[in-house]
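so my prof wants the structure for this chain in the tokens format not the other one, which i didnt know existed until like an hour ago. anyway here's the sequence
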Amino acid sequence: MLPIPIHKTFTYSVTDEEANYLQKGMRVAVSFGKTKLFTGLVFEIHQNPPTLYEAKEIHQILDDKPLVNEIQLKLWQWIANYYMCALGDVYRASLPSAFLLESETIIYKNEAFNNEELLEDDEFLIFEALQHQSQLTIHQVVDILGKKKVMPIVNGLIQKSAIYIKEQIYEQYKPKLVKYVRLHAAYTSDDALNSLLEELSRAKKQRQAVLTFFQLATSKKPIKAKDLETKANVSSAVLKSLVDKNIFEFYEIQTDRINFKGDTNSLKTLNEFQQKALTEIKTSFQQKDVTLLHGITSSGKTEVYTKLIQEVLDSGKQVLFLLPEIALTTQIITRLQFYFGNQISVFHSKYSMNERVEVWNNVLENKTKAQIILGARSSIFLPFSDLGLIVVDEEHETSYKQFEPSPRYNARDAAIVLAKMHQSKILLGSATPSLESNFNAQQKKYGFVALNRRFGNVQLPKIELIDVKEKQRKKEMKGHFSDRLLKLITEALEEKEQVILFQNRRGYSPIVECKTCGVAPQCPNCDVSLTFHKFKHELRCHYCNYQRAMPNSCAACGSNTLDTKGFGTEQIELELKELFPDYKIGRMDLDTTRGKFGYQKIIGAFEAREIDVLVGTQMLSKGLDFDNVSLVGILNADTMLNFPDFRAHERAYQMMVQVSGRAGRSKKQGNVAIQTYNPYHQILQQVSITDYQAMYKEQLQERWQYKYPPYYRLIKITLKHRDYNKVDTAINWLFKALYASFGEHVLGPTAPAIARIRNQYIKNLVIKIPPKQSLANTKNQVSKIKNTFEAVKDFRPIRFIIDVDAY
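here's what i got, hopefully its the right format
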């Protein structure tokens, strides 16, 4: 199996000896194409030579034991088949990139070449450098010439036989070594020590270092060089001179980059409702492998999870705890550490490559520190050997679905398949379950447990809808705040309570418009207007990251009457600072959580009550738990409702209920204020009384009427290319081909709301699959049409993307 987007596997030849040594799931370096070396994965060892090509030999074996186990390979195949993507894509997405060894082209001088007049200027520079160095890498050539494109020059030198090249593989993962200090063997006796201290009576610093060493040595633990330096207050040079005198020795121990300290405190005792839910989950697990836990916000779902986790750990199995968003892991880690100490490992994309490799190895070897894995969607790919339970928290979240790049899988659905392969149980938890999961529970496909009391019997927050249209008519708006919302914020702050304000748009304002001629600056690569970011005084595209300085005058008519329209989190933050100068305002969105610890800093500061009002985007809506928040404000509910997507209403409901759930979690009832232009909208009415069942019934009715999931399945096909006419011709051809097979179940062709991103024009088709139609046959038919499509010469450069369950 090769990490390239190709559907099939390739056969290479091995000797008897290698065949006996190799096992499924080991990595081997193999050459592919003319010069490339790839990290292949052993998928099968057999005796059938390929018919269409001559089998090459493998280059070298990279592992002494398999890196990937059989169950993982089965899961990869399932993902490749179900989501119609290449097995190589799944392989590439699963392994931390450090395991995929890169090959580096090395250039050597041909000693027989002596005709330097043939060489051009650039070629001579490289040739001259090779006189001084035995070999050069392509990166070094780039530095020498100061150009990005160097391959044509290198190829020119090869043709003139001045140089030859080879590929070399380098390993990217470097283990972390920590330097320790010990006393040289010659100084074990007391006499030797006395003479040593006399010898050092003049060298004060060195004597200080030796004495401190003895103090630290009483604990019988290995002593780190760093600790000795800080304790004795000496520089590293002092230790080095002691090593040179053969008094100390340095030695190194390999350690993991991330360790969770933690105590193993006893678990909290559950209240009667949690206890009842726990018992019901266990009963449900006896009949069903999948159980849905519908627990309202702040009902203490995490405590129920911990009890279940404890039982699975006691039976000696591993647990996978899936979370939708990295922001959430920071809070949950702190909680779980409190109970399970260092049995936890965390796996997500904010971790460096080396840290991810260490987690992978720990899971592979089933170490004690990898009994509970906390992670975002990619952690379903880890090499579990004995999985006992998977918990999918906030299972309704869209973040579980990967849209780009391939494999476009949904981690929740893949986790259900993974649990089945391990014959383990899976618990889906949410305060607002997705329609499909709830539908499956109603159809008795999943078990169902409800937990509908908040912990400590605190009531659900009081939700009020504020009519912005009315307020504007009466001139009761101050900026983007209605007088009612400001009154609530003031009251909460005076009570020394905290406030969360939600606006699902980052930046200062999404549109900058000229008042004279009405032109708004657009992104040159995408069909969107540029968002204004006031902090850096620049215009930015949120799709391709194009940025430029904010102009002083209109580019179309030259007048300097530029006006901003709409508002984002940055504008809200600035308005609040003017309205409440004495309080600390914080902001949490993609711009403020850039670094590795970005989330922890903001969440930590808010928990420590250093921030009074926190403004944020949807990151705030997921299960975060702050005990002092008494008010949540949603500044503009309409943008979520009027979105061209069949799930817009369900999503808006989930988002608003989740955000509201952050209020009043510990002592008294919280408040939620929702500003809207349309307070009579059915979804807003359902949110205001938190009526999940009404929303569920109504949406389900609509889905049946308009033929959408959970009744019909969807496959979405997207074409992308720089040339509009090419995409247009191709999509029409494709529509006819699909229509011949599926008739009126093909919708399209349509252009999405943003029809061009990064200079690529986009067109979509959607295929609906009725309940009775075979999914496998449909996919086979689509694959056949795709192969015919790719055989047409004009269509070959067009990107063809298939997204199964594209929602």
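also thought this was worth mentioning. The chain has a mean pLDDT of 89.
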